[in-house]
Amino acid sequence: MDLYARVNILGGRSVRLPRGSLDDAITLDNDPVARAKNWAAQGADKLHIVDLDAAAYGDDRNRDLIDRLIQEVDTEVQVAGGIRSEAEVKRLLGVGAWRVVMGTAAIENQNMLWDLCREHPDKIVVSLDVRPNEELATRGWTQNSGRFLEEALLELESAGIAAVMVTEAGRDALIEPSDTRILLDTLESVDVPVIASGGVRSLEDLRELMGLEAGGNRVAGVVVGREVTHGRFTLEEAKEVIAEGPPIVLTPKVRKPRISPALSATASAYRQLAEELEMGAAHARTAATRYLDGEQARGAAHGLGVAGHLEKAQSSLAEIARQHSDKTKPR
Hints:
Number of helices: 13
CATH topology of the largest domain: TIM Barrel
Distance between the termini: 55 Å
CATH superfamily of the largest domain: Aldolase class I
Largest sheet: 8 strands, parallel, barrel
Number of domains: 2
Structural class: alpha/beta
CATH class of the largest domain: Alpha Beta
Shape: globular
Helix content: 40-55%
Strand content: 15-25%
CATH architecture of the largest domain: Alpha-Beta Barrel
């Protein structure tokens, strides 16, 4: 598990947000670069930098500051906050950002997300703000998206994201315990790395996160900040806990039903069918965007991509039907 240290930047200053609201922002210091260097000196594995001005107001006043931070800190830096265009993703990666984190834009503009993941493999992380009923909140927790966790995760994994960050919308990490159900559902749904970005209250909470497992997956990272600055624990102590490894949880073994090779092959065929349909849908969305942008040639090319994937999907479905028919014929 990696430790990500958070630096929130608002108006050129480092701040903390007790419950995620800019109205409650508390200034920590006037030098985010020095703060980032301090996190690195304490042993943070990665830095998670959030541009709150860009996220809330579309204001790029912190751009030069964040560029300097990326270049001066000798630790991998991922940048989040208000990243809503392909140009800004390319710019940040160009100045040395390790990864770029997208939130609302990834949910609302899936065509762009697919394009970015293809152009920048292992560089695009998506941050999901999840309400207790697992609906996704957007635009700084101010809106409900009408989208829910599981369906969004499946689409994001198909797009090829590098990792997913999960935050519980509205939770105060210093007071309220983590809703492990949300993390378990995430681990169960996808095989991409899952990062718990809401923080933990104590080393015991950290041990609990490390013990979570679903679908053969465990939490790959946790973002910390206020917990350390409030003296709950140090980064050194957290790294010691992580070095110990996940706690051993004794659970009764559940005997899984034996699956015949034929059923396993049928399941594999359906998964292949689903992948072809998902890729076809992605090409269709991109084709629509290209036509609306006046790029007829590129739109037509993606349209042909749709036809190709649909042809493969139809062939796969026909083969599944044929095998089913063979099995049900009277002997």
